[in-house]
Design goal:
The chain has about 350 residues and is α/β, with parallel strands linked by helices. About 40% of the residues lie in helices and about 15% in strands. α2 links the parallel β2 and β3. InterPro entries: SsuA/THI5 (IPR015168), TAT_signal (IPR006311).
Length: about 350
């Protein structure tokens, strides 16, 4: 399912015809069937030692460190496990987290800011992945000017909506010069482009690489680095504030486990992709492996704080948020402690702020 809107209507998920408050309420109702307690243990035998956090996640390679925590049990030594809640659409990933159905989530920082603006008690505690937002166009479209009057597919209030907006701004254009079409899931958007149903799209890896390989003559207009520079943020690790207050060690264990996941991805990329494709990445193994270097994991993204805050004006202009957030949306203290307590692990990471 997709919807054509121009300009975007108010609210995080206006494409579904519902405002933020309605969607969060709906998510809370969904949460009843998921037994959304703050901490859930995976089995009685592990109850005394293992804390299992409910989580949602995205579909791009920026989630790979998060997936490694689950697939490699990297948090087990510190008494931590993850229980992923499946969501039907990209919009539901943030909605369930914002409504408190899950404890933690890896989400685009833009979705996080819409939740925060709506009053959700959440904090960004680390990064997850960088780069990997790609604008792909059909043959014959070679520049921003060629997009005039054309249809661009993306997701609402997503980093994948920010890049085309900033790409057009750089060329002296705006969303008024194009038709924006919003989609529900990553495979759906990719298939719409591959099938020739839209003129361009902004998508995440590995779906952008899949589309380029599958659509003969397709053109990569931007991978974001030409607009933002290298190592720009895509997804962040966010947690409920209550979790920080009630089980700070669990948050630290998760951050440490994600660093282990990043290190595993950096040192054995092929194994990481085998563990995640097609379980999480709905593409071929070859497509995911090719794309994996284009959207690497990066847990320590403290240096990207100002970049993240700088995109908030776009969200306000598009009426997704009412007020610009401050640095209060971040809590780097647990990341700082994990780095100080695990210097050997941190020193082995290729991508980091320090």
């Amino acid at each position: 399912m997709s919807i054509d809107l121009k300009p975007p209507a108010p609210g995080v998920f206006a494409s579904a015809g519902i405002d933020r408050r309605t969607l969060l309420a709906r998510a809370a109702c969904v949460g009843g069937s998921l037994a959304a307690s703050q901490f859930l243990c995976s089995s009685p035998a592990e109850a005394a030692t293992l804390t299992t956090l409910k989580a949602t996640h995205g579909t791009g390679l920026c989630n790979c460190p998060f997936f490694m925590v689950k697939e490699k049990d990297f948090g087990k030594a510190d008494g931590l496990a993850l229980d992923f809640v499946t969501t039907p659409t990209n919009a539901d990933i943030a909605a369930l987290f914002g409504a408190g159905v899950v404890d933690v989530s890896v989400v685009p920082y833009t979705n996080f800011m819409t939740l925060y603006d709506a009053g959700a008690p959440v904090k960004i505690v680390s990064g997850s992945g960088v780069q990997g937002c790609v604008i792909v166009a059909q043959p014959g479209i070679a520049s921003a000017q060629d997009l005039r009057g054309k249809t661009i597919g993306t997701f609402q209030a997503d980093t994948l909506e920010m890049l085309p907006l900033d790409y057009l701004k750089k060329a002296g254009m705006s969303f008024a010069d194009v038709k924006v079409r919003y989609f529900g899931t990553s495979p759906e958007l990719a298939q719409a482009f591959i099938g020739g149903n839209i003129d361009a799209m902004c998508h995440i890896e590995p779906y952008a690489s899949q589309a380029l390989a599958s659509r003969n003559g397709a053109v990569k207009l931007s991978d974001g680095t030409d607009v933002y520079g290298p190592l720009y943020t895509d997804c962040v690790l966010a947690v409920r504030s209550k979790l920080i207050q009630e089980n700070r060690p669990a948050v630290k264990a998760l951050i440490k486990a994600m660093m282990m996941g990043q290190h595993f991805e950096e040192t054995d990329r092929e194994a990481a992709i085998k563990l995640t494709t097609p379980k999480y990445f709905k593409t071929t193994f070859d497509a995911a492996l090719d794309a994996s270097t284009k959207q690497p994991g990066m847990v320590d993204q403290r240096k990207n704080q100002e970049f993240i805050l700088g995109r908030a004006q776009n969200l306000k202009d598009l009426r997704y948020i009412k007020a610009l957030p401050s640095a209060d949306i971040f809590d780097w203290s647990m990341l700082n402690e994990v780095i100080a307590e695990n210097p050997d692990l941190y020193g082995q990471l290729k991508l980091k702020s320090a």
